[in-house]
Specification:
Elements lengths: L8 E6 L3 E7 L2 H6 L7 E3 L2 H10 L4 E5 L1 H11 L4 E4 L6 H12 L3 E2 L10 E8 L5 E8 L11 H5 L1 E7 L6 H16 L3 E5 L3 H16 L5 E5 H8 L4 H9 L4 E5 L5 E5 L2 E5 L13 H13 L5 H15 L11 H8 L1
Parallel strand pairs: 1-5, 1-9, 2-7, 3-8, 5-6, 9-10, 10-11, 11-12
Antiparallel strand pairs: 2-4, 7-8, 12-13, 13-14
Helix pairs in contact: 3-10, 7-8, 8-9, 10-11
Length: 333
């Protein structure tokens, strides 16, 4: 596709194709199972089976960080497509159905054989904190050969999930996708996903930042500290802000800050009657922000959109919006 042709899609994302299994639990169960409270831990299939057996009654919902963001964007009326790997199994069929039912194009061929489609076992304590245990499954074998390069070139923004940078095969695929998107004159958005990913691949991320590969970078407060080595939030912002055109840093209940082309904006967290489950809060913040960015809205309004989306998703179980998000935006903006 020739560079700078009008895009067919607002956002195309590459990420893990996983199904979230979410259950409420006690603090004691977190300790008993020796889980990393409030964090995300990669596990193998045997550990996934063990934790599933130990879970209280659970809900199964299609998830994956970038896929959740696209679900939010789709509910806000944007045109989206997803690239990710599922297995040819029941969970893979569930995931594909859920994506398409949300209005997202998802045509990456399923993978035959083992391993199974990925899943995330999420334990939610009474304070709403989520502890995630991720079996990536088929998702970690997304090959560059599975990329539809014409599709990638047709998206205004290519959104990449840091979690998927960890396995080697999808990392190669994402590097190729970046090349295709840049050749087509598109924007690259990157979400760091988790501090452990930065600890393992920070040199890659810092090199991409230095080389000007990333146009929009999403981090939370702890990820920013890991990326920059700066414990002070403002020092961390200063270390990165001049190197990416748009930097978005979320701070949970303290709101969020964005710096774009020298302009700084801040937003407070939206009020929530009761925090039920923080799963997907960062994913939906990114969805809200990008929904405004894609339309050329002011930086402060993009942040406000992000805060609204995050507040909606933490008020219920699951990582994807349940409300009429376009109506909610019209009411709160």
């Amino acid at each position: 596709m020739p560079a700078n042709t009008d895009p067919r899609y607002d956002v195309i994302a590459i990420g893990n194709a996983v199904v979230d299994v979410i259950a409420s639990c006690t603090e004691e169960l977190i300790d008993e199972l020796q889980l990393n409270r409030g964090g995300m831990t990669l596990i193998d299939e045997a550990r996934a089976d063990e934790l599933y057996e130990a879970m209280p009654p659970a809900r199964e919902l299609s998830g994956g960080s970038a896929a959740n963001t696209l679900a939010g964007l789709a509910t806000l009326g944007l045109q989206c497509a997803f690239i990710g790997q599922v297995a040819d199994d029941q969970l893979g069929k569930v995931f594909r159905h859920d994506m398409r039912a949300t209005g997202i194009d998802f045509d990456t061929p399923a993978r035959d054989g083992e391993p199974a489609t990925g899943r995330v076992l999420i334990f939610v304590t009474p304070d709403g904190e989520r502890t995630m245990n991720t079996f990536l499954g088929a998702g970690q074998f997304l090959p560059a050969a599975a990329l539809d390069e014409e599709l990638i070139a047709s998206g205004a923004i290519l959104y990449l999930e840091g979690y998927l940078w960890d396995p080697e095969e999808p990392r190669r695929a994402m590097r190729r996708a970046i090349e295709v998107a840049r050749e087509a004159g598109r924007k690259i958005a990157f979400t760091a996903s988790e501090s452990f990913v930065i600890a393992r691949h920070g040199d890659d991320f810092r090199a991409m930042i230095e080389e000007g590969v990333i146009d929009i970078l999403f981090v939370n407060e702890s990820e920013l500290a890991t990326l920059t080595g700066e414990d002070d939030f403002e020092a961390g912002l200063a270390a990165v802000a001049g190197k990416v055109p748009v930097l978005v840093a979320t701070r949970s209940e303290k709101g969020a800050v964005a710096v774009a082309h020298g302009e700084r904006a801040e937003v407070a967290a939206e009020p929530v009657a009761k925090v039920i489950d923080t799963t997907g809060a960062g994913d939906q913040f990114a969805a809200g922000f990008l929904s405004g960015y894609a339309k050329g809205e002011p930086l402060a309004q993009c942040l406000k959109r992000g805060a609204i989306c995050a507040s909606e998703v933490i008020a219920h179980y699951g990582p994807r919006p349940e409300a009429d998000m376009q109506a909610l935006m019209a009411e709160r903006l």
